[in-house]
Amino acid sequence: MSSQRAALPSTLTAMILLALSLTLFGPARADTPLPAPQGPVVLRVFGDVSVTNSAGEAQFDLAMLQEMPDTVYETTTLWTNGLQQFRGVLLKELVDRLKIEAGTLEASALNEYLIEIPLEDAIEGGALIAYERNGKPMSVRSKGPLWMIYPYDRDEKFRSETYYARSIWQMDLIEVLASDAAE
Ligand SMILES: Nc1nc2c(c(=O)[nH]1)N[C@H]1C(S)=C(S)[C@@H](COP(=O)(O)O)O[C@H]1N2
Ligand SMILES: [Mo]
Q1: How many domains does the chain fold into?
Q2: Element spanning 70, H or E
Q3: Predicted TM-score (pTM) above 0.85
């Protein structure tokens, strides 16, 4: 009996909080849940993507990536000496956040390098958009600020030309190619 009476105030509280947040922040548009970047843009996702925060694309500054759930891979790589610790956002997190459900990703880098990354790599234990190496942000000179990393030590399949080629450093662009266009 008293539980029903207690439920009413909490519902009211929730409604008031909702009304208050709508007043304070304005109605969030369903198709633009991404906030605008405040700092320098480090990654732009364009093409067949509907979740955007800019004209036809999703832009991220470093802080936005850092606020997303992070993953750490400890692994050696072809390009570094000794065990490395990479922290970043799983490609899966990015893809989920942007509601990308089909197609192929074409990632490109500051040096114009371009590689296709299949959506199948967007899984737990798959591609990681690393923004930190051994606890520090990566400069452009040391293959940053974003470097696609795979857990090479964990599975032999990652120690192959296919995954080495997808290990794109200085990544700044991802184009989402619609599945029909990619075939
Ligand atoms: N930004 C960028 N990432 C890149 C490349 C590149 O040229 N630029 N080369 C790719 C390829 S084809 C491979 S096999 C690996 C290894 O490159 P490396 O042999 O130059 O070390 O990095 C990949 N990532
Ligand atoms: Mo390569």
Answers
A1: 2
A2: none
A3: no
